[in-house]
Amino acid sequence: MKLLSVNLGRPEAVPYTDQPDGVTGIDKRPVDGPVRVAAPGPDGASGLAGDAVCETRHHGGDDQAVYAMAREDLDAWERTLGRPLANGMFGENLTTEGIDVSGALIGEHWAVGPEVVLEVTSGRIPCRTFQGHLGEKGWVKRFTERGAPGAYFRVVRPGEIRAGDAVRIVHRPDHEVTVALQFRAVTTERALLPRLLAASGALHPEALAKARTYVEKYGTEQTA
User: In the predicted model, what is the mean pLDDT of residues 103-124?
Assistant: First the structure.
């Protein structure tokens, strides 16, 4: 299990973002050399030095400091779309190999390279900017239906990372709430929301609030 690339974005003006200034950092490209990773703060942007996160209402901050996508998922989309997808094309900071990123547990800890430790918090919710960047009709719906969103992370221990670094799972929590399940619960299968409470200690606050609100309104009935 390793990093194939570390990807950073620069602010770019585009016609397809909801940002008032029309600027996005979604077009992330692989970089050489080490990149510093640290918690950006609750109102900060990216956890990677030199990476642009322009839409901070729904991106960035401590609970979404780093975004990872499996190369295997990009390869599957290449076959579906019939076009090449470079590392970073989905706006991910980390493109991994040998890891089922969407199958990671909420609260799972990854050691990346010799220093950095990251904690899984949630899956990525697709948006209009993502669809515009890909240039694929109906992309938000298609991405959601596949249910392999990649994972957001908090920074537990800062440090430097680079392409080729090994990735090790150093902690797996005692529950069964995966990123994929969390994503389905907050998008297409709201009856799954009560199950997210088993991961409440590490879950992204927005997802946790949705789960608690659902339970208050409907109780704890849930489906598999």
Answer: 98
Distances from the Cα of 64 to the Cα of 75, 76, 134, 138, angstroms: 24, 25, 21, 25
Give the residue carrying structure tokens 């220093």.
Answer: 115
Q: What is the pTM of this model?
A: 0.94
Answer whether 161's CB lies under 8 Å from 6's CB.
yes
C-alpha to C-alpha distance for 95 and 75, rounded to whole angstroms: 11
Structure tokens at 196: 């997210």
User: Side chain identity at 100, as an amino acid letter?
Assistant: D
Q: At a CB cut-off of 8 Å and minimum separation 6, what does 23 contact? A: 11, 12, 13, 14, 17, 54
As a whole number, the mean pLDDT across the chain is: 94
Alpha-carbon 175 to chain mean position: 20
Contacts of residue 196, Cβ cutoff 8 Å, sequence gap at least 6 = 106, 177, 181, 182, 185, 203, 207, 208, 210, 211
Instruction: Output the DSSP codes for 47-82.
Output: SBTT-----TTTS-SGGGSEEEEEHHHHHHHHHHHT
In whole angstroms, give the CA distance from residue 9 to residue 50: 8
Question: Residue 221: which pLDDT band, with cuts at 50, 70 and 90?
Answer: low
Q: Distance from first CA to last CA of the chain, Å, rounded?
A: 30
- Give the 3-state secondary structure of residue 121: strand
Dist CA 45 CA 61 (whole Å): 5
CB count within 10 Å of CB 222 equals: 17
